[in-house]
Amino acid sequence: MTSQVNLAELFPAPAPAGKATNNASELGQEDFMALMVAQLENQDPTSPQDNTEFLAQIAQFSTVSGVQDMVKGFDSLSSVLYANQALEAAGLVGSKVVTDSNIGLLTEGETLDATIDIPSNASGVTMYVQNANGSLVYSRPLGPASKGDLNIQWDGKNGEGDTLPPGQYRISAEGVMGGKNYTLPVYTHNQVDSVTVDSSGTGVLLNLDSGAQVGMSGVKSFL
Questions:
Q1: 207-210 contacts at long range (C-beta below 8 A, 24 or more positions apart)
Q2: pLDDT digit string, tens, across residues 166-217
Q3: The domain spanning residue 183 has which CATH number?
Q4: Which of 17, 138, 194, 197 is the most buried (most CB within 10 A)?
Q5: pTM, whole model, 2 decimals?
């Protein structure tokens, strides 16, 4: 007479937890093991579970566990990268950066610097400066310019040579290319005053002296 082996002794089901848990992934693993053990206990000895199917079930369980381990690994890597980004951002305090904004801060005794992006050779480029109210306070023709970045400086004086008060100013530019006028992108150079950690814990924000706040991805270049 063929005796039936109690496979539960070889593959004991996980002991029931004394306290309910809210971790869905752990409950799933325990349920999987319990069902697999029950399947082994109740199979017909004369027609046991097919080895291929049984191994496939174990492989499925291993895959689920592997994915969970991989997710934990990505979470750890994300934390490390976030910490490194915060350290790099902190090191930028006091430095100047170039962002997508064309608003800069004029400080007493200093120039307001910016970069004009010229997509193709221009027969003429003109820069314009507006105050916080949108009024034009200064303009100047810069002459012909080649394709590329054109760095400019404004000394804070209007067309009559009077020094304007410190504050926020917007710099814009136009270029003549192929006989037509085009508005050109302008990027002001701003100093990083401080760094703020995003409340979501997923990024770092740079607080600029112009009053703008940008993420690390919004920085076009470091000066």
A1: 208/97, 208/99, 208/101, 208/105, 209/105, 209/107, 210/101, 210/103, 210/104, 210/105, 210/168
A2: 999 999 999 999 999 999 999 999 999 988 876 665 578 888 998 888 887 7
A3: 2.60.40.4070
A4: 138
A5: 0.60
